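HUMAN: Spend a minute on the protein record below and explain its fold to me.
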Amino acid sequence: MGIRMILPWENPRSRFFWFRRRVPAKFAKFGMHGEIKKSLNTTDWDEAVLLCQEENLRLERAWRENLYGTPPSDLSHEQITALAGEFYDEMVATHRANPGPPRDWEEALTKHANRKRPIVGGVSWGLHLLSTFGGEVRSFLQKRGLNLVGDQLFGFIHAYVDAKEQASKQLLKNARGDYRPDPDADRFPKFVPTDAKQVFDSLWQEFCEAKMVAASTKKKWEPYFRALIRRTGSDDMSRVTEKHLLDWRDALMASKLSKVTVRDGYIAAMKAFFGWAKRMKKLPTDPSSEVHVEVSDKHETKMRGFRDDEADRILSAALAPANKLMSKENAAARRWVPWICAYTGARVNEITQLRAKDVKKIDGIWCIHITPEAGTVKTSRERNVPLHPHLREQGFVEFAQAKRGNAPLFYSIARQRNPDRKNPTYASVGNKLAEWVRGLGIKDPQVKPNHGWRHRFKTVGRKSRMDWLILDCIQGHAPRTEGEGYGEVTPDVMYREIAKHPRYKVVAKSVDGRKSKPSQLRA
């Protein structure tokens, strides 16, 4: 959008043409009044038109710099006074040794008094000072990496103008040969910054380590913060304000992203990060605390589990002979991971990260040991989940025992391209399985190709009348109350509930479109 053309205004109380413009709502937060009026000091129309455009462009640049540039600084009244004291010290130190003739400082004081005197019937004194001294004030602030807006900017301009006058009077005394200390110089306190700069990279690393953030979550969330940094123009997290996040939220919601994506992705990441930083005293405030996205229940898509026919289709395809071009690990993942998820309701990456030693017998019951040590667990709590009898009958235990120790069951460490990459190999295995499931014709966006097993396990568990508390323990859902977290749910107790899950009765079929004979393998 172009800059609006402003024409001179004929003020009935003045012989000069005036500049007159309303302040746009999006810029009103910078402390401006609703309307700006200023004499152009000319009676020539053509000159007044040019002066109007110059003044309009100056205002636009100032407003846009505050809105899109460096985030606003937040200073107390004491800090503003101290900052004016730094200007005083700087000015006096620059001229003290050689102040020049007294006449120069007398003229400077007269000129200063005339500059700060507002025009009768014109703008307010604050706006007059902003217009007259704004350029030099901003130059002083920019050298210190500060950006004041609104009342704080007006407050500092007042303090700056007074400090400049006081420094000029002291230098006049010096020019007359009087070098006694200024008795009023101690009115300025020492300037102490609010907080040291909190660079995102170091805070992000601390946050990820403290919260044991999963590699997949890091990969998803970090780009959100990089986008925020580009938007604010600073990687100093202490300078991010609620207004920044609210404006960003509105921009995201105006894009093609859904409200649920904005709420559960972008805003959830901000709340987790800034909430932690505030609790750990890394940042003075949490700018995300009052940032919300309202999602109507009518428009929120409810995710579901696999239907019976979809579950049978996936498990049948898992039994089919693997293509000879597939690695043995990928073939094993396709063969076993869907079946294990079907009978445990576990998260897919909790299964794809399993190692040989994680399949073990506990109190005479074969279990899988799901632990953050192997990769990621959403609740960061390890748990043992008994194997359904049907999994044992299919030979899963023998498959796992063919490997030893820390060897992964469903990927090869030797063939990892980069063990330290952001997206771990076991997550890639899960992503490939998701693509494979979609390729089987299960394309409903309301069912996720891997997470559908967790929803289905809960549904089947209820139909089978599994104990709801033990059902949650099997799936690794966090306790709802402190009391539910007391004690242990042992494998034998979980096994009784898992055994209630009905068996899947499917026949292997080749459904990937390749030319191969249907297998007669049954499960």
